[in-house]
Write a structure and sequence with these properties.
The complex is a heterotetramer, with one copy of chain A (about 775 residues), two copies of chain B (about 80 residues) and one copy of chain C (about 260 residues).
Chain A lengths: L5 E3 L6 E3 L6 H10 L6 H10 L4 E2 H10 L2 H4 L1 H4 L1 E4 L2 E3 L2 H13 L4 E3 L6 E4 L4 E9 L1 H6 L1 H17 L4 E11 L16 H19 L3 E8 L8 E11 L12 E6 L9 H6 L18 H16 L5 E4 L4 H12 L3 E5 L12 H6 L5 E6 L4 H10 L3 E9 L3 E6 L2 E7 H4 L6 E3 L18 H9 L8 H4 L10 E3 L2 E2 L4 E2 L3 E3 L8 E7 L7 H19 L2 E10 L6 H21 L3 E7 L3 E2 L2 E2 L3 E10 L16 E5 L10 H5 L12 H16 L3 E6 L4 H13 L3 E4 L10 H6 L6 E5 L4 H7 L5 E7 L3 E5 L5 E5 H9 L2
Parallel strand pairs in A: 4-19, 9-10, 14-17, 25-26, 32-35
Antiparallel strand pairs in A: 1-2, 2-3, 4-5, 6-7, 7-8, 8-11, 9-11, 12-15, 12-16, 13-15, 14-16, 17-18, 20-23, 21-22, 23-24, 24-29, 25-29, 27-28, 30-33, 30-34, 31-33, 32-34, 35-36
Helix pairs in contact in A: 6-19, 8-9, 9-11, 11-14, 16-25, 18-19, 18-21
Chain B lengths: L1 E7 L6 H12 L4 E14 L4 H16 L5 E7 L8
Antiparallel strand pairs in B: 1-2, 1-3
Chain C lengths: L6 E6 L6 H10 L3 E6 H7 L6 E4 L13 H20 L3 E5 L1 H8 L14 E5 L6 E9 L15 E8 L1 E6 L2 H9 L3 E6 L21 E5 L5 E4 L23 H14 L1
Parallel strand pairs in C: 1-2, 1-3, 3-4, 4-11
Antiparallel strand pairs in C: 5-8, 6-7, 6-9, 9-10, 10-11
Chain lengths: ~775, ~80, ~260, ~80
């Protein structure tokens, strides 16, 4: 670094930078050597704002606060698109849909650590989903576990009591040859095992049931595994207290602060280009034992209304938590770093300030309650310190050994220069695909059932406790035979029959980003409806590559557009979400992946519907129309064929079907239901049979369809479809409900085998145990 | 036969060691600190010591350890005795 | 004793996490229930309670061995208190991690709070955490915990644990357990026959399919399955029209015992 | 400083070792068998080796091992180095 730019501060482990003397090259070098990940424009903005030198603590504050993770630069930035510009993806698409839908049951959205919606009896449900991709690529067990820990703290951070976890995971193919891995990159199998163990371990240790999720394997995830962790919580509305006042104390509690996780934020935003083994400081060792005690303490502080505010420590550590809390309360804060409990003695002030050590929470506490709060922490064997005090300065001030090492205006800090990103048009132009007609449809079905993306997930799901808390009404796996239920239902309140319905929708293989997003939204809602859920709120989680590349940005824009359109069309507002960008590795960008989580309600959990067939002789219905939409389908992928039409969503039709289905479920007409997704009707029907041990027969001639070939009818992945077992003696009522809505009575439950009658009248048959062997492997 | 000990790198906090130390203190032992590691005693079919060593290193790399947080120590056991 | 005067204590330490649902179950049956941290138990003792429960969870992170650290803490902190409690014929129940604690504390199989345990709950034969519903066969009805249950009756209850493989110290310990009628619950096939080690009906590889045992007097019982998760009908995997599930039957026995206490 | 290795008794089935062996075989290693044990490196404040040894034995009896399934080996480490 150039002479005169930097100097040590009188006997303190602090250095000062004189930006006024810094040229552009110097600015970039400072940003790089300090690990700030700030662009030239951002560095210039900082330089321009100050006439005095800045300490490393201050520069780090900008690095953290202005990071992609903390401030969502790209999602709030301006995007140049063909023929115009988008004034922020969040504002123009995601939040706009919610604002326009203006649902009275949306209590707090996009504001706090988690979205909050109304539930029953004066309670709110809180939901949040996060990603922890890079940490999991580097240290699968710890990365995934701390991902779970982090999202649980987001729920605690809105005073929610966590009641359920979710996990959606994407890995490279497990049979990938070791030779094809670049040095330092971990094998998908290692990552898969570690991640699954980490998720299970943290949730199980915390006593929070992990109830919903999905697992994908694809070569697009070899260099960039994707780990989504979600958490749902509940709280009495009147205890949602966010009212930090001048004079309140800032209390930091939980784990100690150490070097682990320093620069996690900037790390999450930097391409994963280096040998991952060298990124050691970001690795964190999970300690759920501390978080379990934190939860106890926080719920008891909540119930006694002792604190005026709360937030978690996530990206940016103390710097972001204190800054955000002060800023959103319209206050300032003075922080004292000397009191922070440290894991190792010689941390520099900037390290304490930005460390992302796990299992910590920040509370604001009125002076009169301070001793009570500290006592609660002490009783749970937790360390806590009075970190500082809120004031009316509008500033973020940090003291270290009686020196002020940071003094920043919150207004400036929280209004970074907006970035502008360019995009190019990304669109899927369908090319016809030639699928040879198979000789044996059963063989195709068996192959699909054993596909890594369709196979039974029992092996994983059983290692997650999904019963703890005793509130899981509909389980992820149905019964001894472990049929895959479409959504989980939690009954959180003792005195209410209302359930929280948790589902997800994700279709990373559909080639058109717009329709991929549409299908994911529809799937989340459909999965919810399948068990009886309704009034669905959505969470979006984007995992994309480097947004500074036009193509990545182009598909992101298309997907976000669909989010707006279909959130509106389905009357389902977004309440929360998150983006994870810069998922790049030497093998290229991550497969663009959008997870939509659906949080619905079910007025009476006793009416919930499950996947397994109930009774010999009951008729089977196919709801919705089957089209020639096989692009990205499991069927084509299993044959290595590209092309075909992307599954699209006709929201109007879909809504009609769902409305009728909900009515049928409420009237008790439906014995079993399963949504039709990956692998089409064939796989859905097989799963229903395997879940019950009962046979079925399905006549493809009675399936509402525009397709002229049996295999395509069976394996098309058109959206908006369900398979429904209707109680035989309620058949007439069901037909009435579905008058004018696309449906076909296409089969019947029973017999010893799984039987398909093709369009030409030919019959295909497989035994249930044969199906099960393929689906469960071995 | 090789013996692979996998332990947390220096400087990483060891939650299990911490809890164990506390419990031992509670039981009256004059304990300052505990670190916990894992030992895999692997019965491999290989010719010589050198090969066993390099295989064990490969096992650590691929499965048993994570260089981002673990150190490992390999020891080739010769002579009688075996993984029982 | 009048049920209104009876009181249950659910003990907890850091990592305990099945206490709330237990409280819900016991209170549903009209038993006053308090959740007490070990520290508070050390301070105020157990005299006012008639039932002590060690609930499930991951006490102290399950470090060293599941239940070991809490088990030893029982020794160092409340041994004589607990001894008295047991001698007064009050009830002690351990579920899952609580069972592990009781084994490690040496409270079971003997009921004596032995310094060195005579059994172990080793890691599951599958080496994995197992969350699943099992068929539990009642081996001996009519004890305080199986009051109203008949021999051979099958209960549907879920397990959720990574270390639940019951291992007696010796053949002899097992023989004694069987002879004294201390094996209360065994994992079974849906047909009602003993699982005979068959996975997943015996989810962990327990010797003799043991799912739960009691002491000779029958006032101390530990089991791996979670009756509190099968308390209400709606918790059952197949759904149920009845208000309650099989787990309630075990708590019902407790209530009856306390009423007669 | 004492080093306590707690391992399953001879003849006892070791599920974790079993699974590890299977994974290693999956990865193509010529592995027959794996046993897993745990090592506690305990920093104790005691005078001499003998005392350390007897303390460690007591720790095993009271906490670190369950005699129903575990054996243990104690080693007193002398000289520099410590539980980091
Ligand atoms: N891509 C997104 N889509 C929808 N909501 C988002 C998105 N990104 C952020 N949000 C919302 O903005 C709020 C603040 O987000 P964030 O600062 O990331 O929270 P935290 O730091 O607690 O994870 C949250 O409610 C979050 O759900
Ligand atoms: Mg947060």
């Amino acid at each position: 670094m150039r002479e005169g730019l930097i100097r040590a501060l009188r006997g303190l482990p602090v250095v000062e930078f004189d930006l006024s003397k810094a040229e552009d090259g110097d600015l970039l070098e400072i940003s790089r050597t300090m690990g700030l990940a700030l662009s030239l424009g951002e560095m210039r903005a900082i330089k321009g704002h100050f006439s005095r030198p800045l300490t490393d603590v201050e520069l780090q504050t900008f690095g953290q606060t202005w990071s992609e993770h903390c401030i969502h630069k790209t999602f709030k930035g301006i995007i140049e698109v063909e023929g115009g510009r988008v004034n922020g993806l969040l504002k123009e698409y995601i939040m706009k849909a919610t604002r326009e839908l203006n649902k009275p049951w949306c209590y707090s959205v996009f504001e706090d650590n988690a979205g909050l919606i109304e539930f029953d009896r004066g309670y709110l449900v809180a939901a949040k989903v996060e990603t922890h991709n890079h940490p999991s690529a580097v240290e699968p067990f710890g990365g995934a576990a701390t991902g779970v820990g982090g999202v649980i703290r987001d729920i605690l951070g809105v005073w929610g009591e966590p009641i359920a976890n979710t996990d959606v995971l994407c890995f490279g193919p497990l049979d990938l040859p070791y030779e094809s891995l670049p040095p330092g990159m971990k094998h998908p199998k290692y990552i898969y095992k570690g991640v699954v163990a980490g998720i299970g371990s943290y949730g199980n240790n915390m006593g929070i049931p992990t109830v919903s999720g999905a697992i994908f394997f694809d070569s697009g995830y070899v260099g960039n595994p994707v780990v989504y962790c979600g958490c749902v919580g509940i709280l009495p509305k009147e205890l949602y207290i966010k009212n930090t006042k001048e004079g309140d104390y800032a209390v930091l509690a939980g784990g100690r602060t150490g070097r682990d996780g320093i620069h996690g934020v900037t790390f999450a935003s930097a391409d994963l280009l280096e040998d991952t083994d060298t990124l050691r400081p970001a690795v964190q060792i999970p300690n759920p034992l501390i978080e379990e005690r934190l939860r106890r303490a926080i719920i008891s502080i909540r119930d006694r209304r002792l604190a005026s505010g709360i937030t978690d420590l996530g990206g940016g550590g103390i710097s972001c938590a204190t800054g955000e809390m002060a800023h959103r309360s319209g206050l300032g804060i003075e922080v004292n770093l000397d009191v922070v409990h440290l894991k190792e003695p010689d941390l520099a002030p900037w390290e304490i300030w930005v460390s992302e050590s796990q299992e910590r929470m920040l509370l604001s506490v009125p002076g009169s309650n301070l001793s009570d709060v500290l006592e609660i922490f002490e009783n749970e064997d937790l360390e806590a310190c009075v970190l500082g005090r809120f004031d009316e300065s509008g500033k973020l001030r940090v003291r270290y050994r009686d020196f002020t090492v940071c003094d920043l205006d919150l207004e400036f800090l929280y209004h970074p220069p907006r970035v502008t990103r360019r995009s190019c048009k990304v669109e899927y132009l369908p090319v016809p695909c030639n699928v040879p007609e198979p000789k044996d449809i059963t063989e195709e079905l068996l192959r699909l059932l054993s596909d890594p993306n369709i196979r039974s997930r029992e092996e994983v799901v059983r290692t997650y406790d999904h019963e703890v808390r005793g509130c899981t009404a509909i389980k992820p796996l149905q019964g001894d035979l472990a049929g895959p239920n479409d959504a989980a239902v939690i009954k959180p309140l003792k005195d209410s029959w209302m359930g929280v319905v948790i589902s997800c929708g994700i279709n990373p293989f559909y080639p058109d980003p717009y329709w991929m997003a549409a299908a994911s939204i529809e799937e989340a809602i459909r999965n919810n409806a399948s068990v009886g859920g309704r009034r669905v709120a959505l969470l979006d989680n984007f995992v994309w590559g480097n947004p500074e590349r036009e193509d990545r940005m182009g598909s992101l824009v298309r997907a976000a557009e669909a989010c707006y359109e279909f959130s509106k069309a389905f009357d389902a507002p977004f309440i929360s979400g998150k983006d994870s960008l810069y998922n790049e590795s030497p093998l290229g960008p991550v497969r663009p992946t959008l997870l939509i989580t659906g949080i619905g309600i079910l007025p009476d959990i006793r009416k919930a519907v499950t996947v397994h067939l109930k009774k010999e002789g009951d008729p089977l219905y196919v709801l919705g129309i089957t089209k020639d939409e096989l692009a990205g389908s499991a069927y084509l992928r299993s044959k290595g064929i590209n092309g075909g039409e992307c599954p699209k969503v006709d929201a109007k039709t879909s809504k009609e079907i769902i409305r009728a289905l909900t009515k049928a479920i409420d009237s008790g007409l439906v014995a079993a239901c399963h949504d039709v997704s990956e692998g089409g009707i064939g796989v859905a029907a097989a799963e229903m049979a395997m879940a019950s041990g009962l046979g079925l027969s399905l006549d493809l001639r009675d399936v509402p369809s525009e397709v002229k070939r049996s295999d395509l009818v069976l394996f098309s992945e058109s959206t908006s479809r369900f398979l429904v077992e209707v109680k035989k003696d309620r058949l007439r009522e069901f037909e009435e409900v579905f008058q004018g809505v696309i449906h076909g009575r296409a089969g019947v439950v029973g017999g010893r085998t799984f039987k398909i009658v093709g369009l030409d009248g030919k019959t295909w048959e497989a035994s249930i145990s044969e199906l099960r062997r393929a689906w469960r492997g071995g | 036969m090789v013996r692979v000990e996998v332990k947390l790198k220096k400087g990483h906090f060891d939650p299990e060691g911490d809890v164990t130390a506390r419990s031992l203190k509670d039981l009256g032992f004059p304990v300052n600190n505990v670190r916990v590691s894992k030992v895999y005693t692997v019965d491999v079919s290989v010719g010589d010591e050198k090969e066993a060593m390099s295989l064990a290193r490969e096992m650590c790399r691929k499965l048993l350890a994570n260089p981002t947080k673990d150190d490992f120590i390999i020891e080739v056991l010769t002579g009688e005795g075996g993984a029982d | 004793m009048d049920l209104e005067r009876a009181k249950a204590c659910i003990a907890r330490v850091g990592g305990t996490n099945c206490d709330l649902e237990l409280k819900v179950a016991l209170e549903d049956l009209g038993l006053r229930t308090e959740i007490l941290h070990m520290k508070e138990i050390v301070k105020k003792g157990l005299a006012e309670y008639q039932l002590l429960v060690f609930p499930g969870g991951f006490s102290y992170g399950d470090y060293v061995r599941a239940g070991a650290i809490w088990g030893k803490e029982v020794h160092s902190k409340i041994k004589s208190e607990l001894q008295t409690f047991i001698e007064e014929n009050k009830l002690v129940l351990g579920i899952c991690n609580g069972f592990q604690v009781m084994i490690e504390a040496g409270i079971l199989p003997d009921g004596e709070i032995a310094e060195v345990p005579k059994a172990a709950l080793a890691n599951n034969a599958s080496s994995k955490y197992e969350c699943r519903w099992v068929y539990v066969r009642v081996e001996r009805g009519g004890t305080p915990f199986t009051e109203g249950l008949t021999n051979g009756e099958i209960l549907r209850i879920p397990v959720g644990h990574g270390e639940g493989r019951f291992l007696p110290e010796s053949e002899e310990v097992l023989r004694e357990l069987i002879k004294d009628g201390c094996v209360l619950f065994r994992y079974a096939l849906p047909s009602g026959d003993a699982a005979d080690g068959e996975y997943p009906y015996n989810p962990n590889g327990s010797v003799y399919d043991i799912a739960g045992i009691c002491n000779k007097r029958g006032n101390i019982m530990g089991m791996m399955p979670h009756p509190e998760r099968a308390f209400f009908g709606w918790q059952l995997p197949e759904g149920s029209d009845s208000l309650y599930g099989d787990g309630k039957k075990i708590f019902q026995g407790i209530i009856k015992y306390l009423e007669d206490y």
